[in-house]
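Q: Convert this sequence to structure tokens.
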Amino acid sequence: MILFPAIDLKDGQCVRLRKGEMDQATVFNADPAAQAKEFEDKGFEWLHVVDLNGAFEGKPVNGPAVEAIFATIHLPIQLGGGIRDIDTIAMWLDKGIDRVILGTAAVRDPDLVREAARDFPGCIAVGIDARDGKVAIEGWAETSEMTALDLARRFEDAGVAAIIHTDIARDGLLEGLNLEATAELADSVSVPVIASGGLASIDDIKRLVAPRYAKLDGAIAGRALYDGRLDAGEALGLIAAKYGHHGVTGQY
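A:
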């Protein structure tokens, strides 16, 4: 069970959005690398990074900020946002990113996901961002007719390392993780599933370590960490008490 702190990049700064709306961005740190170092110092063992501009534009935009992050810290990093072709995947993995997240590409170009998972085993995650159960793409600007479960099952045998399931309706609103929907997804596929969107407080962590959700591989925390509603030490301590660690599982 891994707790991933999130760094969302917009115009080179560390921000959080509300429900994925780019005009609803709050800047929490103008120096993303310093923010990443703070997370490392607090004991987190993975980092989740999203290039928000890239997600909308379909190509990497915040590359310098990403490079500054992995030049500063020693944590494994998973990166998403605007990664739509094999060359971009290879470029980031060559630079030292540990895992690349494919979202829009998973809907538009499933063969790319399969090719990448085959060529870079253990390094490809699928981001499933759902609004009312339907998958959203292009930086959440469009909603497809595909359900989250349909998309997850599409890659059941592809060899992807993880599925990151985000409930857009909760993202950035601190309303609590939609653990039930995420657990249902995890029950339906063999791929490890990570919960994202709405993590609000230590109560979410207490729910996360309950037996019902033991199958989940972890959760992503964003705004709650930035505004102090979630204490990193307390959260990591709860996970460590339950699982004997708060870091990398055998799957990584």
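Residues 59 and 190 are 30 Å apart (CA to CA).
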